[in-house]
Structure formats: C-alpha cells, structure tokens
Design brief:
2 copies of one chain form a homodimer.
Chain A: H1 4-7, H2 25-49, H3 54-64, H4 70-83, H5 91-115, E1 119-120, E2 123-124, H6 126-136, H7 143-170, H8 178-204, H9 210-236, H10 241-268, H11 271-274, H12 280-284, H13 289-297, H14 300-309, H15 317-329, H16 332-352, H17 358-373
Antiparallel strand pairs in A: 1-2
Helix pairs in contact in A: 2-3, 2-5, 3-7, 4-5, 4-9, 4-17, 5-7, 5-8, 5-9, 6-7, 8-9, 9-10, 10-16, 10-17, 13-16, 14-15, 16-17
Chain lengths: 376, 376
C-alpha cells in the first residue's frame, strides 16, 4: 500500500488494489433494480396526487444512481457467512440490502442539506437542484429555503420507502429471524442519526476534541457502514452469537479504517475518484481526526496557517497545497496511515478466526482492503 | 353553529360545542404513554452514543406533549366500527395509533423547519430551541442552520421510531390483516409528503390556484387527518369493502371541513385556542383557500390591501383588523363557512348509512362537528 503521493502533499490518483471481490455485479444489479422499482412503484402514489410531483421522483431516481452499494454487499456476504452457503441470496436478503441502500440515500440527502454540500457523487445535490428550479421558474421567497425544504421531503419519502421495502422483505423471511433483523435495522438507523448529531455539534464547536471525533467515526462510519450491514446479514441468516461477535469486531476495525481513508481522500483525493472537488474537506473546514491531529502537533507557524486557511471556501490551489503540506509535516497523515494499516492488519487476523466458508472470507478480506481504500 | 364574531371580523373565542365523545381519556392516556415510552426506550440507544444527545431526546419528549390525538382516536373508532365492538382496543390497535401520532410529530417538526415557524402548540418549535442553544453556547456557524439541522434529525428519529412502533404492533396482529394495514400506513405517509410538496410549491408561486389549494387540502388534511386514520382502523379490524368506502367518503368530508375551519382559525382564531399568535397565517402570507377566494372576489381597493398586507410579518392589530374585514366583506368567510356547513351536513348523512354500532356512530358524529370546529 504505497501512499507516497499523499506524503508528497499531492493528490492520490489510485490506491494500488485490484477491484474487490466484495461487490459482485449480479447482487448490485438486483439491489439497484429493487431500489429503482421501489421509487417507481411508490412514486405512482406520489404522481397520482399531481403530475407536478414528477421532479421530486426524478430527483430521487437520479440521487439513487451511482452508489457503490458497499453496504448492500456486506449484508449479502454477512448472510452468506451465516447461512454457510456461497449462493445467490434470496429475495428477503436482497430486499433488506436494497432497503438499507435506500435508507442511506435518504441519510445522504438530509446530510447534504445540513452540511450545505453542493455536490454528491459528482452531481448537484438534491437541495441544489431545487434551489436552481426555484430560480429558473422565478418563484417568490428564498431559493435556498425552497431547495432545503424539498430535499427534506425527498429524504423523508426515501426513509418511508426504505422502511416499506424492508418490511415487505421481512414478510418473506422465516418468522424466527424477523425480530433479530428488525432490532439491527432499528438500532442502525437510530445510531447513525445520533452519530450525525454528535458530528454536527462538533462542527460548531471551537477546538476539536479527539474523543468525540473518534466516537463520531465509530457511529457514523464504523458501525453504520460495515459492522451493522454485516450484522443485518447475520440476523437474516440466523448466525450464532460467536459469528455475530466476530463480524462486529471485524466490522468496527474495517469501518474505522474506511472513515480514516475517507478523511485522507477528503484532503488528498482525486476528484474523479471521490466525486467531490479536490481538498473539499479543507475548504469546508470539516473537523476530522486528521485535521484535529495536525492542530495538536502543529508549531506556532503551522497553527496560524491551519487557523487561517481551514474552512476558507475560496482557498486557491497554492494555499491548498501548503495546507496539505502542513498535514504531512506535522505527522498527522503518517499517524492516520499507520492507524489504517494497524486496523486493516487486525481485521485480517480477526477474519482468519471466523467460521465462514472460504469465498466469504475472501470477499471480506477484500472488503478490509477495499473499504480502507474506498475503491470497491 | 354561530359564527357571528368571525363575521364581525373579530377573534373567535370558542365554538359552541360540547367536548366531543371522539377523544376518550383512557385511549389518549394509553397512546401518550406509548409515545413517551417509545421515545424513552429508543432514546437509550441514543444516549448510549453520548450523553450529549440528551437535549435531542428532551426536545422530542417536549414536542410529543400537548397533541389532541385526534388521529389516534380515529384509528381506534375506525377499528371499533370494523370489529363491531365498542370495547377497549387491544395493544396492536393502540400501537398503530401511537405510531401514527409519532409520525405526525415528525411531520410537524419537519414542516416547522420548512415553514420557519417559531411556535407550535404554544411552545417554541424544535429548530428554534436549538437555534437558541447554539447562541447560548456561543457556537460557531449560523445558529439558524444548526437549529434546522438538529430539527431535521429529531424528525428523522421520530420517523424511524414511528415505523418501529407500528412494526412492533403489527407483529401482534393476526397475519391476515397485516398487509392491508401496512398498505394504508405506507400510502398515508407517502401522500401527506406529496401534499406537503404541493403546498410548498403553491406558497412559492405568484397568484393562487384554487384547484391546487383544494388538492393540498385533500392530501395534507382530509385524507391524512381523518380518512386514512379511519382506514387504518378499518384494516386493523378487517372491515369489509362497504365500510371502508363509507369511512372514506365520511372522512374526506370531515377532513376538508377540518382544514377549512383551520384556515379560519389561522386568521380569526384565539391564540389560547390555537397555540399560535392571532392572525399568524396572514402575517406569514400563507396561501389558503380562504385568502385565495378573497383575492378572487376583491375589488381594486381590497386587492391592493391584500397585496400589500398579506405576508407582512410586522402587521399591527389595526391593519390585521382591516385585513380580516376584507376577508369578511368579499364574502370569502361566508363561502368557507357555507362549505363547512355543507360538508358537515353531508358527513352526518353518510354516517347514518354506515353499518357500525351506535357508540361508534355517536363518536364519529361528534368528530364531524368537533373536527370541523377543531375543539376535540
């Protein structure tokens, strides 16, 4: 895992990994189809109210495209491991996986409103789309308020439909597994929102607190992106306690690595890879562990630079380069890279102890690396 | 039903109705308890993330209080009518009724963000509470943005918990009735959001369109507040098609009357009764059927007044009084009152044809009047 380009303070074009075995095309296609079918089917109820609702559906449809479906893949692999079979998942499993992706879409749409982000997966965010629509049609009132309001509604619709999708799926599941699956599904949704609140709070505060940022990483990323999708699969497949605990420990490590990699990509990432402008996190002044570590290790000159430039929306390439340099020179980048390496190494060791069929182990091994590199 | 005070352009203190038999204290107490228990129980997952989440729970708890629980009552009466029994509802029925109230809470919290409302049920709205918290704690960034973001999250949590509550309830229901109940629950949530979008759109437009405002009334109020709660009860009780159709026709009439009364109260209502400042709708410039009718019937002088003063947030009592006078003198108030009378009369006739036990008929009769007067 070479990271020399990041260390030089330039953009990371690619991580040197083969495309993972984590996300298989057949499952992704089924999940994508189910997500879009749900939007179409539930959308008929919406357009029956008025055909003026068509733009709302279009926004949901467009926002639904382009996801990597990592969470869905982890649900399916988690189920395969529990079911001790490396086979095509049945409709209940794919339904829950697709419901999770639809929920994730809703969470992203709402997060983008909260963070006032303009781009997501390389396209304008939902609130930005309706802000423009407001201007284009010469509406009264504030365009930004209209955009936020409509995006809130689009998110609410997707939350509702995700729930409907999961409930439909659970009706096809053997009854003894429904309660356990629902418990994970309910906890997952509650905990990611709690993590988002903590993140919001931290972004408003003067000074960063490492313990809070670590907790945000645990709940918004490690649990939500990796551990809980695996546990959903485990519950769907009726996994014994030992496997659930194994999934948990593995998932928390990989998920934390995933988020730390994301923090690095938010600063050093190639826009073609991340779908966001280069250095976006620095321009937005996002409080990440990476930046908090740099603040803690910076000398007086570096601190002044961090204080002045992090959060400056108009940062040019030159000043962005100098900021990146500070992150490297303080050792913050190295510390984060080392932590990622440790987490990924430990995740691989944990994986060796899991009682799952070999193809499941191979896929999760690839997840450990691929998630950490965010290339899957 | 005397409305002479409104016709004189003054505030309506009370509608001359006895407290309805619609909302019975025992059911309301069970619903309230279940809503609060859900917030407490799910809240433990939230505070396990960090005790800094406590204010989020407090906000949810406080926002949950003070509702009239009309929708829950209609679920229970709808079920009693279908079950042909005038008995205490079982836990599945109360669970769905409480889930609907928790969903309603979420919808109100999000609506208040969209409408930028400062008061709800006589207390500061959730986004306003966190806006103040932001200022009090000297946070960075815009206080209003923080307030909106947290309120979005509080609403999202309540949406999730409403869903969890309904799902738990449905597991106690005989399986043959689950699918029908879920269909109403999913449609209800989707349609009210579609209605809210249409309302938002209409509020941004120059000029009002009566047909769109009528459709907003149908979906945001008539179906959501009366028809669909009755249909939820019907599905829970396994009602035959004839009763479902009867509930529908009755519910749409009563629900429209409810909204029209609400439009009148938004202009002429006593703050003690509505929990909102007097004349709030006029100061906010809310596009209601009442105002749209007045615009249509106004002469040149009246039109100038409407154009100038509707939507002026700083309207004093004097100018508010003159605006009210215009609504009366154009005949808009009379037209709305007449429509309410017709709807309520027709609802009573429809009720006479419903095959339900006498206590159910009496309660729904009281709903027809009480909802129209919004006193229950």
């Amino acid at each position: 895992m070479t990271t020399h380009r990041a260390v030089e303070g330039r953009e990371v074009a690619h991580a040197p990994l083969q495309e993972g075995r984590l996300v298989d095309a057949a499952t992704t296609a089924r999940v994508d189809r189910l997500v879009l079918e749900t939007i179409e089917r539930r959308g008929r109820t919406v357009t029956a109210v008025s055909d003026e609702l068509e733009p709302v559906l279009r926004a949901a449809r467009e926002a639904a495209g382009g996801g990597k479906r990592i969470r869905a893949a982890l649900v399916v692999w988690g189920w395969r491991g529990a079911a001790s079979r490396s086979v095509e998942p049945d409709d209940a499993v794919v339904g829950v996986a697709a419901g999770l992706e639809l929920f994730h879409l809703a969470a992203l749409v709402h997060d983008d409103v909260m963070d006032r982000s303009g781009l997501r997966r390389g396209r304008p965010t939902v609130h930005r789309v309706f802000e423009r629509e407001h201007r284009r049609r010469g509406f009264e009132g504030r365009a930004a308020d209209f955009g936020s309001a409509v995006a809130t509604l689009v998110g609410d619709l997707c939350l509702t439909w995700a729930d409907a999708l999961v409930s439909d799926a659970l009706r096809q599941l053997e009854p003894s597994r429904v309660e356990a699956t629902r418990r994970v599904w309910d906890d997952l949704r509650t905990e990611v929102m709690a993590g988002q609140y903590l993140d919001l709070l931290e972004q408003q505060r003067r000074g960063s607190r490492l313990d809070v940022l670590r907790r945000v990483t645990t709940y918004k990323s490690a649990k939500y992106t990796v551990e809980q999708p695996l546990l959903l699969g485990a519950a769907l497949g009726g996994a014994p306690a030992a496997l659930r605990e194994g999934y948990s420990a593995f998932g928390l490590d990989v998920g934390e690595a995933f988020q730390l990699r994301d923090d690095l990509l938010g600063v050093f990432g190639d826009p073609d890879l991340t779908g966001k402008p280069s250095g976006e996190d620095l321009r937005e002044g996002k409080r990440t562990l990476l930046v908090a570590l740099a603040e803690r290790r910076a000398d007086a000159v570096q601190q002044r630079l961090l204080h002045r430039d992090v959060g400056d929306a108009h940062l040019d390439a030159d000043r962005l380069g100098r900021l990146r340099q500070v992150l490297v020179e303080t050792g913050a980048v190295r510390e984060v890279e080392q932590r990622i390496d440790e987490l990924v190494a430990r995740a691989h060791r944990r994986l060796a102890g899991l009682d799952v069929p070999q193809p499941v182990r191979a896929a999760l091994a690839s997840a450990a690396s691929a998630c950490a590199w965010r290339l899957a």
